[in-house]
Amino acid sequence: MGRAPCCDKASVKKGPWSPEEDAKLKSYIEQNGTGGNWIALPQKIGLKRCGKSCRLRWLNYLRPNIKHGGFSEEEDRIILSLYISIGSRWSIIAAQLPGRTDNDIKNYWNTRLKKKLFGKQSRKDQRQQQQQFMRQATSSDGMKQEAETGDVNGSSGLPAINYNWHQQTIVGPVPGMMMEGHRIRDEVDESIRKLLYKLGGPGPFATLQVPQCVPPMCEGSPSIMLPSCTVDTTSLNEGGMQGSSTLPALELDQSFHFNQVKLDSLDCFFGMGTDQSMRWSEVSPLVCPNNTVASSSQGLQPYCHVDEPANLGMK
DNA sequence: AAACTGTTCAACCGCAGAGGT
DNA sequence: GACCTCTGCGGTTGAACAGTT
């Protein structure tokens, strides 16, 4: 069977919008609104465009008060904090940045912010490092199996650490939030915290679960664990999140490792001196906030265990 | 100057969920 | 409850542009 197409693709124009099309769409919506029906809208205006395309064009480009380009460091911080906390939920992130669209933020993250964070590498180097990473990962049998089977219940026997979603300042540990011994950007921090509180639901014990660890990759530094926080997002999915069950922590972890676990490039976000390059163990609070990353009795960094948000309160 | 490579970003695609019947 | 339509979202693509060789 299959799903009926949203429009007749043969008779619909694709590709970049002409100024005339923009003008038509803009003036119509400004005068009449969308009428609550994007599908019918192009016919009303006489545009040979798909309704979805009209909606996208309006939301991402024609809508009033849209900002393009020129992301400030403040915005970078907000995006980073939220990405670390909630992942690629661009619409939610965009809602915290007036004038920004989800598409804009997504593009910005994928093309610039990632590089700004992880440093610039050639694709060849990235491939080599990824291959090396995978080789090392697969040579660590036990952990590998656990990672593959998605042992989200922490049945490895490693102790779980509980992190209270609401009692902590989620983004607090982000180094940039502290500068010269005193806290800055409290308003932004607070607003993000409120958002995360909302996302985490009303329950006072709602917490984030980060159940897995990937074995240490630091050659010659067996005592350093690199927590790869593959997160059980079942609760998030229940709350409307779609897509991967892996939060960006894993990606961050791998990227950190691929870049020799040096985080010099974070300096621009967090105001660190260049001589203060950090290793994962120092930066892990970014992903697993303060008391989620505690050393176990075995000297291993087990994993962050944070109980799931009872109720996301989304939409 | 030409060819090649990398980057950016607007736009498309398909899926999932909401809401109506 | 089943089905259908529409909307919104996130991932991906590809054209245009910029930079490099």
Can you characterise this structure?
The protein is an all-alpha fold. It has 2 domains: 9-62, Arc Repressor Mutant, subunit A, CATH 1.10.10.60; 111-305, no CATH class. It has helices spanning 19-32, 41-45, 51-62, 73-86, 90-95, 102-118, 123-138, 141-149, 186-200, 234-238, 248-258, 267-270, 280-283; strands at residues 161-162, 178-179, 182-183, 304-305. The strands form 2 sheets. A two-stranded parallel sheet has the order 1-4. A two-stranded antiparallel sheet has the order 2-3. Helix 4 runs parallel beside helix 9 (186-200). The longest helix is centred in the middle third of the chain and has 17 residues, at 102-118. The protein binds a DNA duplex (21 and 21 nucleotides) through helix 3 and helix 6.
The tally of strands reads 4
- Determine Rg (CA atoms, Å): 22 Å
Class by helix and strand content? mainly alpha
In round numbers, the mean pLDDT is: 56
In sequence order, what are the helices and strands, one letter per element? HHHHHHHHEEEHHHHHE
Q: Classify the beta-strand content into a percent band.
A: under 5%
Which residue ranges are poorly predicted, with pLDDT under 50 across at least 5 consecutive positions? 121-128, 137-184, 201-251, 253-268, 270-315
Distance between the termini: 31 Å
| CA-based shape | elongated
Strand arrangement across the biggest beta sheet: 1-4
Q: How is the main sheet built?
A: 2 strands, parallel
How many domains comprise the coordinates?
2
The helical percent reads 40-55%
Please, how many helices? 13
GO cellular component, one term: nucleus
Domain HTH myb-type: 9-62, 63-117
Region (Disordered): 119-153
Domain Myb-like: 9-62, 63-113
